[in-house]
Fold this protein.
Amino acid sequence: MAGWTGAAVWAAGLVAFSTLPPHRLWGAWAAAGYLGASLAAALLRGPRARTVALVSALSGAVAVPFGHLLLTGRAQSEVGVIERSAALLLHHGTPYLAHPQAVTDYNPYLPGMALFGLPAALLGDGGAVARLLGDARLWCAVVLLVCLAGGRAVLRRGVDGEAAGPASAGGLLVLVASPLVALPLCVSGVDLPLTGLCWLGLALAARGRAGAAGLALAAACALKWTALPAVAVAAALLAGTRGGRSALRCAAAWSAAVVALVLPAALVAPGPLVEQVLAFPTGRAEVATPAASPLPGRLLAEWGPAGWYAAVLLLLCGGAAVALSLVVRPPAGCVAAADRLAVGLCVAFLFAPAGRFGYFTLPLLLVVWSRSATGTLPGAGHRWAPLRRGRTAGRGGRRPPWPTARPLPAGTRLPSAAALRARGTTGSPDEATTPVLAARAPARAPTTVVPALAVPPPAPPGGPR
């Protein structure tokens, strides 16, 4: 009830303070849907309360405003930019205008983003069905949902073939109904496929599928250069868990796919690509970018050239610090990798010379969904619980398939290195534990004792907890 109430208050705030008509329309419908969900959670009990609340939230925050905005063609300006870039790509081989004059003439996205506008370019504006199926927001939402569900399916296949995370789709539906996804899905949608592809790449890397991870991240990098940090995080994850060869395979697949997706359009119009994709988002183009949230990098850039260079220097220092953390302590699982990528993206958005608060949807979505998909949210069931006295904490308390160690009695003293050398041992930790375990073994124990303390259990999916 508290969660849906907070979402309703936030949506009502858009109605009161936003100057964008699509945002105000979404806020009015979403506030009503969230308020209905809050009342259902407060007045009903059991599974019925959850079902009614979720239906109310999805109806008010997604279904009704999404359908209305698609049928009327009302959206943020970037949706029109994507659909125009698709038409330019079909007729001229490049998604960029040669001589942009206004803000809406600039296309700050890489050529892959134009693919989401192809349905509109092919179907035209012939009727309601064409407007619904041709709108770029619809296909951005489809890619997001497919990537989120696909990444979770990849992680659910644990080392023993059993599910490693929650199996129901309720978490995904709640995430879609939340303002974190519902607002950008209805009014813009351009950052949603980027988020989904980054998540899918990290999930594939966590499972050791280096080539597939490289292809997924290449698709993300073909949309926006914001996805570049995800490549470094995935490579560090593979290098730390699977070895350097896996990281190299991921980098090779990524490089080949990026060249195939971006190079043709770059060769046709290299000048407009550099001006619109690199100069415009950083505030160095002839037309100022409308991304003007009061973030530190933006405030520094307003001080003139010296402030702009100071913001870029801070941005490079933050990126170097995150890169150093990947080398010193690479992530050991999908959750850790998503957290590291979220930190890097937050640093980039904070110190970029131009940015919006809406950009933080990407790192927040990565952090929330990585925990939901792996079952590490507070209160979520997860079978990779910490071991207790040599037994697993889930599924009937079965013993794990690996050797485990029993706790030593209080006051037990391990033999010293000199005593071990006198007995003919090398004094290694493995041999140091063998006499103690053998002394505590029953009389019918076999003569060969496995040094249990030297065999750690395998790391669970998503990294150590």
Summary: Confidence is low (pLDDT under 50) at residues 159-167, 378-406, 425-455.
